[in-house]
Amino acid sequence: MAVTPPAQRNWWKEPIERVELIWTVLAFLWGIAMFATMILWHVVGKQNLANEAYRISPDVFMTRTEAFAKKYKVREEGKTGVPVVRPPAGADVYMLGRLWEWWPVLELEKGQSYRLHLSSVDWQHGFSLQPINVNIQVHPGYEHILTITPDQSGQYGIVCNEFCGIGHHQMTGKIHVVERKPQ
Ligand code: CUA
Predict the structure, then answer these.
(1) What separation in Å is there between the alpha carbon of 180 and the centre of ligand 1?
(2) Ligand 1 close to Cβ of residue 109 (< 6 A)
């Protein structure tokens, strides 16, 4: 019984039971196999995002995002007044999370690659890209850079999936993916 002290006080010096040893080795090997799978899956599974993360101050990130939006703005989204920004292929693309929106709206070209910079300028937010289910936790002070190549045209929605206050359920964003314009 666990409530009584062991009869042999120096139990750790006793020889290990054969069955216990086998289980310990099996559990260890299984752990190693699972660990290797994480690395393998990053390479062959197309499941993990190839991302980089850096420290950045919210002010600097806001300034960069605003400059980016101003430079490549092509129109406004509906009647919302939110700029739709169409950067050239291969460009650094900025999107910020704040109470309570993902800003600005992006318009990207199918088949082209972009470096998407994500950060928050106030609290923790979640970047959940629908319907393809890419999820990133976004904090102020850090920027994630995702190298993305949209492979399907259409409209993608972003919802915030980290609780961020009273407007959390209304915090959304949008990415349009368009076919290359005919020359
Ligand atoms: Cu931002 Cu929830």
Answers:
(1) 33
(2) no
Atom in ligand 1 nearest the alpha carbon of residue 99: 1
118 lines ligand 1 (CB under 6 A): no
- 62 Cα to the center of ligand 1, angstroms: 17
pTM of the model: 0.75
Residues of the chain with pLDDT below 70 are 1, 46-48, 50, 181-183
Q: Alpha-carbon dihedral of residues 168, 169, 173, 177, nearest 10 degrees?
A: 140
Ligand 1 lined by 167 (C-beta under 6 Å): no
**Residue 183: predicted pLDDT:** 59
pLDDT in tens, 115-151: 999 999 999 999 999 998 889 999 999 999 999 999 9
Does residue 142 sit in helix, strand or coil?
Answer: strand
Kind of pairing, strands 105-109 and 142-148?
unpaired
56, 141 contact by CB (below 8 A): yes
Ligand 1 closest atom vs CA 124? 1
Q: Which uninterrupted H or E stretch holds 102?
A: strand 101-103
